[in-house]
Structure formats: structure tokens, C-alpha cells
Amino acid sequence: MSPPVITGIEAKMDGHTLLLTWLVPEWKTENNGRLTGFYVYRSAEDMVAPLCEDCPRQFQKAAEINIGTKRAGESVLYTEPVKKGFRYFYRVSGYTEDDMEGEKSETVTVIPETDKMDHDLNF
């Protein structure tokens, strides 16, 4: 059994820095190891290009975050600098000590110049 889908992802801007947060999910299993971390995936588009809602996005792994001593219900924070003039799309997944990865979360969209954030369930 793979880790649960990460839900409740929130994004905000602090100047030119993205703050992406979510809660450690409740997950108990006997056979597949414990939840040990998260992968953050990013895709970026130049704002000059028109937004294509139906186009597939090419996500790259942006970070691997070890869960450390955090427990279910505690907040996880990922930060990175972002540039104006781009749209950023983020997804998060959990993984186990056996490197079993769960499904990727819904996509969170960030547009730095307008500080616009959007949860898009279509990706």
C-alpha cells in the first residue's frame, strides 16, 4: 500500500519567496514501512505563453524533504525563490523508507507578480 495523497497544500508569497505548506497525513501500515518524507515537484511556464489548461505539464523533482521527527497533523514547509514573469505549478507526494511513492497531490499554481495562488484539480 502506497502513502496517502497529500491534501490541503497552501501556497503564499513572501516577497520573491514561495512558501508551500501542508500537513503530515495520518497513515498507518504494517507491511510497507513508515512515511519518511515528501517529494516536491515543480513546473514553470513563461507568462508570455498563453495558459493552456489542457496541456500536459512537465514536472521536475524540485526537492526531497525528510519528515524527521514530525508527526501526523504537523505542518511541513518548503520554500524557494521564484521569478516574476513565470507561472509555477507544484505537486507533492509522500514516500516511505522503502522508497514507495504515493500519488502526487493536486496542483497548486503560483503567479509571483500578482501573488495569485490557485488550487487546480484538473492536473
Secondary structure topology:
Layout: E1 10-14, E2 17-23, E3 35-46, E4 60-66, E5 75-81, E6 86-96, E7 107-111, E8 116-120
Antiparallel strand pairs: 1-2, 2-5, 3-4, 3-6, 6-7, 7-8
Overall average residue pLDDT? 87
Distance between the termini: 23 Å
What is the CATH-assigned architecture?
A: Sandwich
> Helix/strand-derived class?
mainly beta
Low-confidence stretches: 118-123
| Percent range of helical residues | under 10%
Written as H for each helix and E for each strand, in order along the chain, the element string is: EEEEEEEE
Determine the CATH topology.
Immunoglobulin-like
The count of domains is 1
Q: What global shape is seen? A: globular
* Strand proportion: over 45%
**How many β-strand stretches?**
8
Query: Mind telling me the CATH superfamily name?
Result: Immunoglobulins
* Rg result: 15 Å
User: How many distinct helices?
Assistant: 0
* Biggest sheet: strand arrangement: 4-3-6-7-8
Q: Specify the CATH class.
A: Mainly Beta
Largest sheet: 5 strands, antiparallel
